[in-house]
Design goal:
Layout (H helix, E strand, L loop, with lengths): L1 H7 L2 H42 L3 H16 L2 H15 L1 H4 L4 H26 L2 H9 L4 H16 L1 H14 L15 H12 L3 H47 L1
Keywords: Amino-acid transport, Cell membrane, Membrane, Transmembrane, Transmembrane helix, Transport
Pfam families: BPD_transp_1
Subcellular location: Cell membrane
Length: about 250
């Protein structure tokens, strides 16, 4: 038991690494995940709209993109983009792997978020689109103002779950060799663990990851619960009306 505590819960090493985890690691993890979430959401919406298009030249590229980036391991995508494009885009980003890490995470996230948006939009009753068109709205306006907002609202829990995955996947950027000031949570914990031969710094990094992901998980449950309650409340008048008519 003492050996276990010494290896995983050595408070000296935990307190030693915590300032860097909070000052540098937490900030960079949130930047990597946040920037990737924003870019991935925009690209994901484009992919979703393309995937739902009746035009094959739009639909098929979106499907191929989604299949590729969902089918490849995240670490493989990060290494290929981070190291492969690093030589091509050196004039733009120099030798800094940070932007390429964000790009890789964004492209991966876009494939998943695009499918989330597509499923949400398809779950909206077709009558919503038909009613909007009957009121004189164009197909584009009906989608943008009526169908897509309803679809996005339905998939909010899945979108938050995807952000949680991005927070965890940001640790894979470690393999690109970030600079000292660019290290995320895992890299900082890993560096001290390698120097001391003790795993307590990695446990400390895990605590910070949990401080981010656990509240987000509860947020997902809260949003999901609110959406379910909203559906029940919306359905209640229909039941009352139906009962009145039958009587």
């Amino acid at each position: 038991m003492d050996q276990f505590l010494e290896t995983f819960l050595n408070w000296e090493y935990i307190w030693q690494v915590f300032p860097d985890l909070l000052k540098t690691g937490l900030l960079n993890t949130l930047i990597l995940a946040g920037a990737s979430a924003v870019i991935g959401t925009v690209l994901g919406m484009v992919l979703a709209v393309m995937g739902l298009s009746t035009k094959r030249w739009l639909r098929w590229p979106a499907r191929v993109y989604t299949d590729i980036f969902r089918g490849l391991p995240a670490i493989l995508t990060i290494l290929v983009i981070g190291q492969g494009l690093g030589t091509v885009a050196r004039d733009v980003v120099g030798t800094n792997p940070y932007p390429l890490g964000i790009l890789a995470l964004s492209l991966i996230a876009a494939a998943y978020i695009g499918e989330i948006f597509r499923s949400g939009i398809q779950s909206v009753d077709k009558g919503q689109l038909e009613a909007s068109r009957a009121l004189g709205m164009s197909y584009r306006n009906a989608m943008v103002k009526v169908v897509i907002p309803q679809g996005v609202r339905r998939v909010l829990p899945a979108l938050v779950n995807q952000f949680i995955s991005l927070v965890k996947d940001s640790s894979l950027v470690y393999f690109l060799g970030l600079l000292v000031g660019q290290r995320e949570l895992f890299r900082i914990g890993q560096d001290l663990a390698a120097n001391t031969g003790n795993l307590s710094p990695l446990v400390a990094a895990g605590f910070v990851y949990l401080a981010i992901t656990v509240p987000l998980t509860h947020l997902v449950n809260h949003i999901d619960k609110r959406l379910r309650v909203g559906k029940k409340v919306a359905a209640a008048p229909d039941l009352v009306t139906s009962g009145t008519v039958r009587s």
